[in-house]
């Protein structure tokens, strides 16, 4: 068993989902003291999102991972104002978040052609600097790829997440009866009759301690951050990683998953969540399902059975709970309908919230424009909010 997963870990090496890069803006050009000429500004370094790009391509194309922009031109007799140095663009895939050395977010690139300035060129030499140019900004940046999907599959290993994805979409993820079959996230799309598509991300299984990075937990949990909704997938018979670890019932796996999400990032729990209870084709599944439903209806009555550190602050309220079999397809149409309903409702809510915000901004700007005297800055900023 162990050697299987080793081979797969090696395969994971081909999938790059983060990179560390050195960037430096170009130096400014020299000024021209005698004639008061100003050197050109150094070029800037930008990170730019391209649909077709991957981090692996970026890494292969620029193995030294250094990005330096061009120098500003010196001020000359024929061109007293030196021209600006050439900008440097780092092409990255869509869905990247850029952070600095301290983990502070510089920006996120969510759609094609989004761009972020990461290192600014130095100013050209001028009177104020004694005509000496300034160096460009130096910065180490981290690129992190997060999947952008409508729905993320969350579950312990072996619950049947990949089987489910291949049942409801055209994606063909690997399926096997050992833990950690899925080692990199994979996207599938559910197609609806009215041509609406909903993207679903199959994620590697989480285990207890994932928030402390057990089982490469962080690598996987971070992908969940960007999915709009969560679909918990649990094996109705529960889960046991190995003979040495404790057996967990389906209810326990749900509580443990909730706790892992909470410990990793509390706001993950605010996402709408659905629950698919899998492997309903197997003998005895109905009984187990009834037990689980009873526990989910009154979770508080059962939580005292858990060790304290395993109890989440809040239990997840599932919008729908659907018994399914990812192998026979039983219940998966119903599941697809529930996913659709939930995604549509969420989009409506987002639209409502957006309109309310717009309305509020409009009201604010009206109130401001009735008031005398007007401060120029206030009006500008409230207008900008509306845009
Ligand atoms: N009987 C039955 N077996 C299932 C069902 N769904 C999945 N399985 C089996 O359970 C095993 C694990 O399935 P996967 O789809 O690989 O599980 P996973 O959740 O993606 O697992 P990891 O990638 O390791 O996290 C495989 O042997 C599947 O054939 C189901 O509905 N019924
Ligand atoms: Mg899998």
UniProtKB/TrEMBL annotation:
Keyword GTP-binding: yes
InterPro entries for this protein: G_OBG (IPR031167), GTP-bd (IPR006073), GTP-bd_Obg/CgtA (IPR014100), GTP1_OBG_dom (IPR006169), GTP1_OBG_dom_sf (IPR036726), OBG_GTPase (IPR045086), P-loop_NTPase (IPR027417)
GO CC term (a single one): mitochondrion
PROSITE patterns, sorted: G_OBG (PS51710), OBG (PS51883)
OBG-type G domain ranges (all copies): 149-344
Keyword annotations of the record: GTP-binding, Nucleotide-binding, Nucleus, Ribosome biogenesis
Subcellular location: Nucleus, Nucleolus
Gene3D superfamilies, alphabetized: GTP1/OBG domain, P-loop containing nucleotide triphosphate hydrolases
GO molecular function: GTP binding; GTPase activity; magnesium ion binding
Gene Ontology biological process terms, A to Z: ribosome biogenesis
Family the UniProt entry places it in: Belongs to the TRAFAC class OBG-HflX-like GTPase superfamily. OBG GTPase family.
Protein name: GTP-binding protein 10
Lineage summary: Eukaryota, Metazoa, Chordata, Craniata, Vertebrata
């Amino acid at each position: 068993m162990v050697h299987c997963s080793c081979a797969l870990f090696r395969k994971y090496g081909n999938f790059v989902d983060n990179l560390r890069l050195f960037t430096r803006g170009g130096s400014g050009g020299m000024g021209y003291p005698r004639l008061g000429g100003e050197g050109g500004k150094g070029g800037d370094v930008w990170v730019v999102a391209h649909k077709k790009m991957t981090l692996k391509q970026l890494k292969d194309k620029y193995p030294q991972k250094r990005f330096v922009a061009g120098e500003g031109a010196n001020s000359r007799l024929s061109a007293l104002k030196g021209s600006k140095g050439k900008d440097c663009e780092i092409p990255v895939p869509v869905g990247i978040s850029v952070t600095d050395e301290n983990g502070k977010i510089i920006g996120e690139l969510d759609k094609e052609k989004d761009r972020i300035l990461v290192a600014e060129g130095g100013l050209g030499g001028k009177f104020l600097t004694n005509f000496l140019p300034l160096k460009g900004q130096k910065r180490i940046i981290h690129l992190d790829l997060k999947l952008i999907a409508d729905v993320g599959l969350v579950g312990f290993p072996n619950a049947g997440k990949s089987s489910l994805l291949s049942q409801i979409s055209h994606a063909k993820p690997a399926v096997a009866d050992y833990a950690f079959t899925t080692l990199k996230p994979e996207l599938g799309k559910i197609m609806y009759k009215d041509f609406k598509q909903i993207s679903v991300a199959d994620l590697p299984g989480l285990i207890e301690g994932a928030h402390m990075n057990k089982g490469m937990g962080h690598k996987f949990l971070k992908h969940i951050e960007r999915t709009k909704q969560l679909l918990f997938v649990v094996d109705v018979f529960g889960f046991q990683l190995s003979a040495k670890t404790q057996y967990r019932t389906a209810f326990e796996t749900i509580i443990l998953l909730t706790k892992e999400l909470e410990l990793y990032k509390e706001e993950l729990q605010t996402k709408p969540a659905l629950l698919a209870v899998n492997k309903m084709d197997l003998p005895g599944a109905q009984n187990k399902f009834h037990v689980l439903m009873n526990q989910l209806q009154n979770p508080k009555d059962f939580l005292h059975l858990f060790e304290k550190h395993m109890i989440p602050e809040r239990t997840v309220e599932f919008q729908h709970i659907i018994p399914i079999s990812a192998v026979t397809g039983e219940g998966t149409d119903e599941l697809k309908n529930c996913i659709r309903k939930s995604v549509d409702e969420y989009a409506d809510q987002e639209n409502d919230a957006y309109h309310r915000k717009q309305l509020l901004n409009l009201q604010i700007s009206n109130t401001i424009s009735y008031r005398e005297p007007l401060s120029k800055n206030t009006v500008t900023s409230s207008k900008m909010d509306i845009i």
